[in-house]
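User: Some background: our group keeps a shared notebook of sequences we're curious about, and every so often someone picks one and asks for a predicted structure to add to the entry. Today it's my turn. The entry only has the sequence so far, pasted here. Could you supply the structure so I can complete it?
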Amino acid sequence: MRTGWADTERHDLRLDEQAPYAARRRAALSERFPGERLVVPSGNLKTRSNDDSYPFRPYTGYVHMTGDQARDGALVLEPRADGGHDAYCYQLPRDSRDNDEFWTGATAELWMGRRRSLAESELVLGLPCRDVRTAADDLAAASGAPTRIVRGIDPSLEAAVTTDEERDDELEEALSDLRLVKDDWEIAELRKAVDSTVRGFTDAIGELSGAIASSERWIEGTFFRRARLEGNAVGYGSICAAGEHATIMHWTDNDGPVRPGELLLFDAGVETHTLYTADVTRTLPISGTFTPLQRKVYDAVYEAQEAGMAAVKPGAAYRDFHEASQRHLAERLVEWGFIEGPADRAYELGLQRRFTMAGTGHMLGLDVHDCAQARNEEYVGGVLEPGMVLTVEPGLYFQPDDLTVPEEWRGIGVRIEDDLVVTDDGHENLSAGLPRSADEVEEWMARIAG
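Assistant: Of course. Here's the predicted structure to add to the notebook entry:
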């Protein structure tokens, strides 16, 4: 087994197009922590059962700072005397053919597939690369500067360093903060994700008859095929919620019937090969046309989304779009007699939340709920800037067992969600390729689903 193998080292690799952007991101991180050693691990395989692992998904902050997706890696920023940092990347090297490591063991290349060599990784990432098998010892022996590490990602590296939890949390906050404003390369990747998602929605609606004949799983599987063909996978568990399942915010079992006359709430996003994800929702009449009551609810959500989207512009408070959408829905719920008015009072008391449930949107990027560890004053309490990408997704959900609403309303759930990038003078709706108004949805379904 140790002899007779060709030399497969690749000398034709080029610097990845993301590398210059990742270098600028590392420089921004360096500025925040002068004189400190920073460790950002990529993470390890997680066991599903026995010798079977879950598909590996690297830690988001590592991907953003390196452009790399390798398991068992780590980015280290080593402080210099001038206050800057030298960056290098620990990687798991290729298995040697001089011993049995390449074909024995759970992670051997003969079983798991070829990895890049350290030299190959240096060419692609534009970073010096070291053997990760020495990382724990190297970090344990390092001195002369305090260390911060992102916790909960790689236990072996975490055990090798002496750090402070509060200071480590500040590192994770900074990594989230630095993703709030996307660079041009990231926005281009998000466009790819959204464009593929639009095609995936079209695929699924074109096969709606298959879902009616089987279940919600048909929709999920149809969309997943597009996600795997054009990207890495789906960016989160697809929500293919028909009938009363549409009132469940995170319905991912997708095993229910798809019945004409009811609504389908379809929330899904393609994740690109670089791990940027879309997040789009449409609520569709399975029979092709809305009933008068379904349209009444749909129009209220559409109007709320219009109000929310109008508030997305540079200089606006992040909370403005949420408030605009929620106030509109509160007014409708008061008008319909489901909550006690006046509408301003109902909104201040949060009475509409029984039926709107969630917030109206979130940041979007490498994670579907991106920048989740960012500081409150930079995110939820912050101000919108050009380059921020977020969702606007109001909804109304009338639970099937809610006795406070008339019986004919129960089991109706409607959400409309689009992905917006903040521009210098307003916003651009990246997912405008999918219809939104009730009339547009019906026309689209007649054309696509037949």
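Suggested note for the entry: The chain has 15 helices and 17 strands. The mean pLDDT is 97.
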